[in-house]
Amino acid sequence: MYDGTHYSGWQSQKNADTVQRCVESALRKITGRKVKLTGAGRTDSGVHAIGQVANFKTHSKLDLNKIKDALNSHLSGEILIVSAGYVPLKFDAQRSARSKNYRYTVTTERFVDPFIRHFASRFSYPLNMGSMRRAARALTGRHDFKSFQASGSSGSSESNTVRTIKKIKIEKRRNLVYIDIRADGFLYNMVRIIAGTLLEIGRGKMPEESIKEILLKRDRRSAGPTAPALGLCLVSVEY
Amino acid sequence: MYDGTHYSGWQSQKNADTVQRCVESALRKITGRKVKLTGAGRTDSGVHAIGQVANFKTHSKLDLNKIKDALNSHLSGEILIVSAGYVPLKFDAQRSARSKNYRYTVTTERFVDPFIRHFASRFSYPLNMGSMRRAARALTGRHDFKSFQASGSSGSSESNTVRTIKKIKIEKRRNLVYIDIRADGFLYNMVRIIAGTLLEIGRGKMPEESIKEILLKRDRRSAGPTAPALGLCLVSVEY
Question: A83 lies in a domain?
């Protein structure tokens, strides 16, 4: 679980504070050896996680809960290891995942509640929930989501862009709109581009029928903008 | 409404970022004149507010909502002006208050949820809610709370230390304990010393019957420790 506000995302990068790097460095201190973590989701800079999952191999004979507690003592208050368990050697937090759930949160207030300012992105147009839900239905299922993959991101763009969205749920509570997406996997920036597209549809800037066409075009430019990172949270991963 | 994490409290001080100073400086830009704010509660460094109230006098003929919106545009995302209204000239946000409500939040988890780390203080002992509630009952009513006033705080210590606590409600939801206190006024650090004392009673370090004695002693040393600022929030003020 992490508040991603002040991190440069999950994945280790040179000269950047990433969640993976912080956890790996704590593990190194605890086990005395260099440890390589594999995370389920490569969350971007500013993206949060309630249910990130990561695995690593170690020769350490330390008790599982001792490792967990030691990690939490070493880590800053922004990252919390919620639980720890043994997995088969062939387990890979990313590749073994059956599905991942992301939540995108939007506030429609003109000025954002200070207490959620890092966890909801502002969208100041009124949203037609019906349009958004119908567009979401068109996205659900097995499709080529190439139009919803960030273009030009070296190393992150996949050649196989077919994914299955199992469910999209859109809810409004007071001034917050939650877009929950479950899929067997996500392309780079896919949730944020889907959120950005659904928001454009919700405000009436794009027709709700455009989803089919966008999917067919297989061109990033046909979809809506990438919604800001701070509204995104990796909620859970299923195996 | 403000997230007080990165502020040196409400009240203007030399060379310190305070909420009052930020709002006054924004008001100065908007009205073109120096403005003096009077706040209902002088929240400490790190203390939050959902319902702070402040008043000021101005000759500006700007529309009330324009002032509110302009303030929100000038202020950082950590402070939000929720509403604005006209008051009689003699209104004083602090002195005219009939009662104030503060909430103190404690988490009993050993490691704190990253998303509430600035809003709940950690207390890792099991708490006896019954003891805490009975002790709270002994605090309720009109008493001399001198024992619950921070000592030696220049300018902040009051000679009249009699206050009326109208209600204390203690609730536990999952791993969070909420202490809600309503009083006609609070002495310096009073809520945090009450919270600190109730927590000592809750963990069995002080007997629940000790409240009467503490009140009678009129000595800060007789009460429990001052609970950390980050768990405190000014919830509302009634006039």
Answer: no
Element housing B55 (H / E): strand B54-55
Q: For position A9, which CATH number holds?
A: 3.30.70.580
Which SS3 state, helix, strand or coil, does residue A139 take?
Answer: helix
Mark whether A17 and A118 lie in a shared domain. no
Task: Quote the CA–CA distance of B63 and A152 in Å, as a whole number.
Answer: 49
The enclosing H or E element of B232 equals strand B232-238
Q: Does B182 lie in the same domain as B142?
A: yes
Bridge partners (DSSP) of residue A179 are: A104, A170
CA distance B87 to chain A (A): 24
Spatial distance between the Cα atoms of B201 and B117, rounded to a whole number of angstroms: 24
Tokens of A238: 């299923």
- Identify the pLDDT of residue B235: 98
In contact, B15 and B53? CB cutoff 8 Å: no
Q: Domain for residue A212, yes or no?
A: yes
Domain carrying residue B23: 4-74
Contact residues on chain B for A69, CB-CB shorter than 8 A:
110-111
State the Cα–Cα distance between residues A138 and A135, nearest whole angstrom.
5
Chain B residues contacting A, CB < 8 Å? Answer: 1-3, 48, 69, 72, 77-81, 110-115, 117, 119
Are residues B122 and B44 part of one domain?
Answer: no
- Locate all alpha helices (DSSP H) within B127-185, ordered by sequence: 129-139
Does residue A125 lie in a domain region? yes
Profile chain A (239 residues) by mean pLDDT over runs of 10 residues: 96 88 96 95 96 96 94 96 96 97 96 95 95 98 96 68 98 96 96 98 96 97 97 98
Question: pTM here?
Answer: 0.90
